[in-house]
From TrEMBL:
Protein name (record): Thiamine thiazole synthase
Co-factor remark: Binds 1 Fe cation per subunit.
Keywords from the named record: Cytoplasm, Iron, Metal-binding, NAD, Nucleus, Thiamine biosynthesis, Transferase
Subcellular location(s) of the protein: Cytoplasm; Nucleus
InterPro entries (alphabetical): FAD/NAD-bd_sf, Sti35, Thi4_fam
Post-translational modification (record): During the catalytic reaction, a sulfide is transferred from Cys-206 to a reaction intermediate, generating a dehydroalanine residue.
Gene from which the chain derives: THI4
Provenance organism: Vanrija albida
Coiled-coil region(s): none
Cofactor requirements of the protein: Fe cation
Modified residue annotations for 2,3-didehydroalanine (Cys): C206
EC annotation from Swiss-Prot or TrEMBL: 2.4.2.60
Chain intervals for the UniProt region annotation (Disordered): 1-15
List of residues binding substrate: A77, E98, A99, G106, V171, D208, H223, M275, R285, M286, G287
Amino acid sequence: RPPSPPLSKAETASEASNDLLDAKTAATRVPHEDWEGKYTFAPIKEWQVSRAMTRRYGDDLYRTAVSDVVIVGAGSAGLTCAWALATARPELAITIIEAGVAPGGGAWLGGQLMSAMVVRKPAHQILEDVGVPFEDEGDFVVVKHAALFTSTVLSKVLAFPNVKLYNATAVEDLITRPDPLGGGLRVAGVVSNWTLVTLAHGLQSCMDPQTITAPLVCSFAGHDGPFGAFSVKRLVATGMVEQLKNMRALNMTSAEDYIVNNTREVVPGLITGGMELSELDGANRMGATFGGMLASGVKAAKEAIKILDA
Ligand code: AHZ
């Protein structure tokens, strides 16, 4: 990284006035345990805050422009995939792109906006591995709040040094290349933009995106919605897939098994799982039972490792 540029005139003045303030406040600084209404923060300059953020964000953009795996969508399936992949392969550079400000997709609540999250066995083993407590009800388990699952898996994912999450960032397109093996096309990365920009393309022209190159993209963009099923829709638009079969009605008995067993590389370079897969394959939805999403994420991670190791 190049050395920081010298301070501007304005910064030097601000430093001086802050130093004066520092000297004054230092006298009143007290240890945490003795705090009685005299809480005093360590000094900071406005530009230090700006630079602390921009330098890291810039470094991250520079580094992740070439990633090993890009995960699209940080819902229950995408986050579980990131956790499983980063746990198994700490050397991989894994970049997660999430359109929303808050990662987690639909997994902040269980169903009909209620708190509890139902996970059918045997996917409760994934909860055990991640470290999410649950109540055992026989064939299924219940996490007392879906947010407990999402916040726990998210905290683990974010702590991996090899994982970068860009939230408020949307995948706007896929990168494709001729596939040297098959003769058709393969996915070779994603095209991204800040979500607010993506939402405003109709208002301004030429707000061009940027790219992340990766040999493998794992897409968990969820079922159809404002952003949902993004990658599989794009596969149709690019002619890599003929048509979407569209998500079918709810069948809790069969839907989860189908999603897990069919989580796969749907075209070269793109693995799809979670509810996005139901739009591609015409599979049933399962409603508010999440074991299929967790196991689909783990299955995708296993498929990714096989492909990257081949
Ligand atoms: O914001 C989306 C959400 O957080 C994100 N996303 C979608 N398109 C994107 C794009 N770029 C970046 N173009 C994008 N991010 O993807 C996430 C999808 O999360 P989700 O919770 O909607 O999907 P999931 O497959 O992980 O979990 C589905 C949970 C469901 S839906 C359902 C039913 O309807 O029956 N049942 C279950 C368990």
